Amino acid sequence: MLYVKILIMKAFLQKLNQKYPRLMEIARFIIVGGLATVIDFAISGIFWYFTNREIYPKFYNILWGAIGEPSTWSTVVGTALGFGISLIVNYLLSLLFVFEEKGDGKTVKGAVLFLIFSLIGLGIHMLGMYLLFDLAGLNEWLIKITLTIVVLVFNYVTRKVFIFNDKNKPKLNQTETQEEETND
């Protein structure tokens, strides 16, 4: 019975993908981004817990707050580890799951662009938090949510336009295409 439900769901998703390919691509992008965020938070939290055991008596204190101030090095290193590992996962899932057009995605150039655009997105987020929270004093969660949406749009557009877009790849002429098929 479960197998039949899975087949029905698969057929439904394929029809949606045929009818609304861009919408389905954006949905996949959001799902992958959400998974990458969970991985980022989990890696960061686990690192903070094991490097600051004295202020996190139980693991759930990572979520509800420490009984002291965590060390700067552990928050910076934990955040960098979480970001780095989630970035790799996000890149691989974007190749495999999100974008049907691969463009430069499978090339070193595509991987470097993915990293650069991700770092720019991180910079937008950090600068926005500094300006709107630290300097303007606005609510941190409202700012964080707003900036997350802004960076999400930035990430989708830059990845779609500059990396995962077959229109950016040079077209092979007929002779080159035949030679390539012969070599395969």
3D structure, described in words:
- This protein is mainly alpha-helical and 184 residues long.
- It folds into two domains: 85 residues, no CATH class; 70 residues, no CATH class.
- 77% of the residues lie in helices and 0% in strands.
- It is built from seven helices and no strands.
- Helix 1 packs across helix 2, helix 2 packs antiparallel against helix 4 and helix 5 packs antiparallel against helix 6.
- The termini are far apart.
Features:
mainly alpha; 184 residues; 7 helices
The residue fraction in helices comes out at: over 70%
Round the Cα radius of gyration to an integer and report it: 21 Å
On the 0-100 scale, what is the average pLDDT?
Answer: 84
> What is the SS-derived class?
mainly alpha
Number of helices: 7
How would you sum up this structure in a few lines?
77% of the residues lie in helices and 0% in strands. The protein has 184 residues and is mainly alpha-helical. The chain has 2 domains: 1-85, no CATH class; 99-168, no CATH class.
